[in-house]
Amino acid sequence: MSDKILVEKNGPVTTLIINRPQARNALDREASLLLADAIRAFEADPLARVAVLTGAQGNFCAGADLKELASGVDYVPWAGSAQGPLHRAASKPVIAAVAGHACAGGLGVALWCDLRVAEKSASFAVLSRRWGVPMSDGTTVRLPRIIGQGRALDMLLTARSIGGEEAERIGLANLVVADGTALAEAQALALRIAQFPELAMRTDRQSAYEQADLPIGEAIARELELATEARQAQAVSGAARFASGAGRHGKVG
Questions:
Q1: What is the DSSP letter of 235?
Q2: Looking at the predicted structure, is the pLDDT value of residue 204 above 90?
Q3: Could you give the CA distance from residue 39 to residue 144 in angstroms, rounded to a whole number?
């Protein structure tokens, strides 16, 4: 068994760890396919509700392994190929815990996640620009949708590095934390999310993703369609818990 992708489970939270620290957790072909396998296993696990994706030993992911690419090894596009780990959004929430470098394809990995918890010293950049390697990990699609076209083009054209605090300011990071704490903070956030009633959370998340490709009228109709099952299964009982005093003052109902 390869140890390039490690999986740790803590109740409803699954932590996926890119474990190639000697290469700043760059993904070679094997590691990218193993990551895809680990994501599918997380999705299939009925006990797993939220995943945290991180890198070992102080770096998130430095993108694709360019040394392997230079050797002529066949490269599987992470987003454009159905085999790639970033081909589609996961069916359950995933949080990136970002320390050190999230550059080139590593930026794409972070963007694929729903939320990004970044350390102050973390850096996000399209460093592959320096070597003429194009993005095939979804970055050119997801980055503009998250931070806007102008800021995305700044990063894509200049290869400028974005630190943790700037990343939060422009919406690239959802939360900035002290150095050395991203994983613990992301896992704590994952555990909080996992405590919410799952069905409504997942259908609301799905609607948020699907609406981007639909006219507003169709998007609202799709929201209603997705909400139907959760409304029938959970809304009345959830409202009753609220009426009885549960779920208030920041507590899970």
A1: I
A2: yes
A3: 24
DSSP assignment of 91-158: SS-EEEEE-SEEETHHHHHHHHSSEEEEETT-EEE-GGGGGTPPP-SSHHHHHHHHH-HHHHHHHHHH
Which token pair is 109? Answer: 């990995």
**φ and ψ of 71, to 5 deg:** -80, -5
Q: Does the pLDDT at position 60 exceed 50?
A: yes
Range of the domain at 222: 198-243
Total domains, the chain: 2
Rounded Cα gap, residues 35 and 41, in angstroms: 10
Q: How far apart are CA 185 and CA 159, in angstroms?
A: 28
- Burial state string for 198-217 with b = 16 or more CB within 10 A and e = fewer than 16: bebbbbebebeeeeeeeeee
Say if strands 123-125 and 101-103 run parallel, antiparallel, or are unpaired.
parallel
Half-sphere exposure of 121 (CA within 13 A, CB side): 8
pLDDT in tens, 167-184: 999 999 999 999 999 999
CB atoms within 10 A of CB 156: 17
The structure's pTM equals: 0.90
CATH number at residue 33: 3.90.226.10
Tokens of 139: 């970055």
Report the interhelical angle of 105-112 vs 139-147 (nearest 10°).
60
Residue 234 CA: distances (Å) to CA of 50, 91, 160: 20, 20, 46
Q: How far is it, in rounded angstroms, from Cα 215 to Cα 137?
A: 26
Which of residues 186 and 134 earns the better pLDDT score? 186
- Same domain as 101, residue 205: no
pLDDT of residue 136: 87
Q: Is residue 251 assigned to a domain? A: no
